[in-house]
């Protein structure tokens, strides 16, 4: 049976063909309404480097959109892995463990809690897909003599997907895919675990280790050095946030200028290095959410108090200009004209 992308459903093609929907779910439902059978691949593209959470949350409910007869034409879904930026050395890490989450989503009528899904996925990854991370560590060791320091950094980074790499370099089929970005795991498990923890002492030690790790990075790759420096900046920011949080058990109210400046810094550090996302930024964002920005900080309050004074001064200046300065200029002009 021939399978074609969802564009062929607009060309009055034979209804014996199966439509594979890659653009969105609406194209799938439109094809089914036209009498085609359909497969969904939208939301299951592994080469986009989306999280297992994103794939697992892809809603496949059709009860409110299709009747029982048309629901039978919905055949299922497919996980897709295009290889513009993937070679044989990387394909295993790019396929697993996220495909296991997609498989469960397609095979099960109900979805589980995200945290429960991740617990099972992590167990499967350590047991079946990447036990002891042997290949991961071996690939990192090609870039450095201190693999432990580089691994700490790599565990907090994620590669960008198709859209994040197609304009950064002039890739061809002969471009070697052996850089730091090509070794990284699609999703940072370390970041997810740190976001879950509420142990302040553990976070203190973690942020301190980030800062110290920069001293032990031994790599000539400029991207690695920049990421390491950014991670050290994150550690300093994280230590400051923890110190502020420890001063009061209640939610901290902070200046809106300070709050949004922190967000600006995090956004900058997260994507400063091309093709790589500094996933550890999400840990700091989670901490920052425990603060409440106040729009009426001291600067805004001073402006509100001083505004009437500014208005009065402006009015006085206008009075002086109209009733004193202009007559003086006219007098001097008249005097100069006489001579």
Automatic annotation (TrEMBL):
GO molecular-function term, one example from the UniProt record: beta-N-acetylhexosaminidase activity
Major enzyme class: hydrolase
Residue span, Glycoside hydrolase family 20 catalytic domain: 2-109
Transmembrane segments: 298-314
Superkingdom: Eukaryota
SUPFAM superfamilies: (Trans)glycosidases
GO cellular component, one term: lysosome
Keywords: Hydrolase, Membrane, Transmembrane, Transmembrane helix
Reaction equation(s) it catalyzes: Hydrolysis of terminal non-reducing N-acetyl-D-hexosamine residues in N-acetyl-beta-D-hexosaminides
Gene Ontology biological process terms from the UniProt entry: carbohydrate metabolic process; ganglioside catabolic process; glycosaminoglycan metabolic process
EC number: 3.2.1.52
InterPro entries according to UniProt: Beta_hexosaminidase_sua/sub, GH, Glyco_hydro_20_cat
Gene3D superfamilies, sorted: Glycosidases
Family classification: Belongs to the glycosyl hydrolase 20 family.
Protein name: beta-N-acetylhexosaminidase
